[in-house]
């Protein structure tokens, strides 16, 4: 299983993460001992600081067309998860944007809709993309908090 730290720059840590998650050998075939695996596990721990909520909903990502700047490009998909700081959108579409590009996200989760500026964190061809919210509007933040409170209540009611 390939694990990337999000930079995509092929750093040593990134390569070691791949080794730990792919069964315990480093590139070049050297097997990692049990003790080494334990020390290196910290590299594959979750880096996110906010709780993510599995949810379903629709998303539309809009950004200016690079060729003329007047037209807009659109990427649509299904929301896989949502947090206070970002989301992951599933889509078979190809997102032709540079990492850290700014976009406008329109999200609809359980009947609640909001729009926010965001930054592309990473995109996987024919899989989806991760976005970080760039909260500038208190109303957007309130709408997001409302959605997250509903998702928390649903989890609590389900006993998770």
Tell me what the structure shows.
- With 160 residues, the protein is α+β, with helices and mostly antiparallel strands.
- The protein folds into 2 domains: 12-44, no CATH class; 53-158, Thrombin, subunit H (Beta Barrel), CATH 2.40.10.220.
- It contains 3 helices and 7 strands; from the N terminus they run ααβββββββα.
- The protein has helices at residues 12-21, 34-40, 138-158; strands at 53-54, 57-64, 72-82, 86-90, 102-109, 112-124, 128-133.
- Strands 2-3-4-7-6-5 form a 6-stranded antiparallel beta barrel.
- The longest helix has 21 residues, at 138-158.
Summary keywords:
single chain; alpha+beta; Thrombin, subunit H; 2 domains; 24% helix; globular
In short:
β5 and β6 (112-124) form a beta hairpin.
Q: Would you spell out the secondary-structure blueprint of this structure?
A:
Layout: H1 12-21, H2 34-40, E1 53-54, E2 57-64, E3 72-82, E4 86-90, E5 102-109, E6 112-124, E7 128-133, H3 138-158
Antiparallel strand pairs: 1-3, 2-3, 2-5, 3-4, 4-7, 5-6, 6-7
Number of H- or I-type helical stretches: 3
Low-confidence stretches: 1-45
Q: Report the count of strand segments.
A: 7
Q: Which value, in Å, is the CA radius of gyration? A: 18 Å
Main sheet summary = 6 strands, antiparallel, barrel
In which range does the helix fraction lie? 10-25%
Shape: globular
Write down the secondary-structure element order: HHEEEEEEEH
